[in-house]
Write a structure and sequence with these properties.
Layout (H helix, E strand, L loop, with lengths): L1 H25 L12 H84 L2 H14 L9 H7 L20 E4 L2 E5 L12 E5 L2 E4 L5 H11 L4 H4 L3 E5 L3 E5 L22 H12 L5 E3 L3 H8 L60 E7 L18 E4 L16 E3 L8 E3 L2 E3 L2
Parallel strand pairs: 8-11
Antiparallel strand pairs: 1-4, 2-3, 4-12, 5-6, 7-12, 8-9, 9-10
Helix pairs in contact: 2-3, 3-4
């Protein structure tokens, strides 16, 4: 009986070991739930889960790598396509630019060809040679150029007669060409209305070489019958030694209270009188006349915009006719204060050759008076109450003959220390 039981136990143990071996190798011969608490079963299940997780990770990693490679491939393909498009656009732009340049070249060639024919017909050899050289450089193989070089070589240069000289200036007026430029207008050493110093640019213009003379103004009056405001009114302000300045009945440009002849600067004329003479001159068709703007006047008084105090430089003025720095003004030493001198009695400015820009008589400008911030100096009057006059006079002191010195009167003021000078544009 005992032997039988031992035999049964041995059979059971062997059966269990066989199951474990078979289960471990084949994974499923006996369902794990039949022996859920067996340690070997639990170990097998854990190992199985690890292998499954590892396999899942490997599949995910392969899928991610595949997606990444696909994305990189797509981006590379898009970049190549973009570069190809840009390259094609660049080639197209280059073709268009080349076509444009070729068209410009052909257009220029046609223009030169027309100029060439005109120059040959007109006998203008030099112009024809220049046109041929440029045209041949543009389209050397164009058949229309054949034979033209030989025709040009046989040409004789036509010499046109010189143009007739311009008509003499009206009334003997002389003008000086003032090239345009920029300069520093104003002064930091003068009165407050001369400040601030600021840059101003003017175009080229012509300035009267002298102040307008009595004889020239007389010509205007005789031709037009014009009567000045002094003649129509109560006279002009004149100076009498001992009694000073007074407006005298019967005084005018004809009788300014001092001795004058036709070569003296005209005085006792208002800004309005000067404008009437300007209108008369402009009706003659010999250029466009005007009073100078304040900026033009100072630019000319500085001998073309130089940084100098006076037309001749920085030397203090003296009232001596032979002096380089001479000017007609009252300095209480070498000049008396009895009246004007004939225009051109003192030395001209070194560069431009303008006379009496300092002294003799104050000169009307066309500009309204005001602070420099209003920029009236660059334009003619827009109806302000005062008009700028410049240059000093026979009666004033040396300060007034500085190129930057400013003064003003109402447009109807007339006095024997005030005249004008003209500017001109055009022929």
């Amino acid at each position: 009986m005992i032997m039988v039981n031992r035999h049964r136990s041995l059979v059971a143990v062997c059966a269990t070991m066989a199951w474990v071996v078979v289960a471990w190798g084949a994974e499923v011969l006996i369902a794990p739930q039949e022996m859920p608490n067996d340690p070997l079963v639990k170990a097998w299940e854990q190992e199985k889960r690890k292998r499954e997780e590892q396999e899942n990770r490997e599949r995910e990693e392969k899928a991610a790598a595949s997606r990444k490679q696909a994305e990189e491939t797509r981006k590379a393909r898009e970049q190549l396509e973009r570069l190809a498009r840009e390259e094609e656009q660049a080639r197209e732009q280059a073709r268009q630019e080349q076509a444009r340049l070729e068209q410009l070249k052909r257009d220029r060639f046609e223009t030169l060809l027309a100029q060439l024919q005109t120059s040959i017909s007109g006998g203008m050899k030099r112009d024809a040679e220049r046109a041929y050289q440029e045209a041949a450089g543009l389209l050397p193989g164009d058949g229309r150029l054949n034979g033209l070089k030989e025709r040009i070589a046989r040409m004789q240069e036509r010499v046109d007669p010189p143009p007739p000289p311009p008509p003499p200036p009206l009334g003997g007026m002389e003008f000086v060409r003032v090239p345009g430029g920029c300069f520093q207008m104003g002064s930091n050493d003068g009165a407050s209305d001369e400040k601030p110093v600021h840059e101003v640019c003017v175009d080229g213009f012509e300035m009267g070489k002298y102040e307008v003379k009595v004889g020239q103004f007389r010509k205007f009056v005789e031709e037009t019958g014009y009567r000045t405001e002094a003649e129509r009114g109560d006279g002009c302000y004149v100076y009498t030694r001992g009694s000073g300045w007074n407006k005298g009945s019967g005084t005018s440009w004809r009788n300014p209270g001092m001795n004058q002849n036709d070569d003296h600067p005209v005085v006792c004329v208002t800004w309005n009188d000067a404008q009437e003479m300007v209108k008369w001159l402009n009706g003659k068709g010999q250029g466009r006349y005007s009073l100078p703007t304040e900026a033009q006047w100072e630019y000319a008084a500085r001998d073309g915009g130089k940084k100098v105090k006076y037309p001749w430089g920085d030397e203090s003025p003296v009232c001596r006719k032979g002096a380089r720095n001479g000017a007609k003004f009252d300095d209480d030493k070498d000049c008396d204060d009895t009246g004007t001198e004939p225009v051109g009695s003192y030395a001209a400015s070194p560069n431009l050759g303008l006379y009496d820009m300092a002294g003799n008589v104050w000169e009307w400008t066309c500009s309204d008076y005001g602070p420099y911030s209003e920029k009236n100096y660059a334009n003619c009057s827009k109806g302000g109450s005062g008009r700028v006059d410049r240059g000093g006079s026979w009666y004033g002191g040396p300060a007034g003959v500085r190129s930057a010195y400013r003064f003003f009167y109402s447009p109807d003021y007339r006095g024997s220390l005030l005249g004008f000078r003209l500017s001109r544009t055009g022929p």
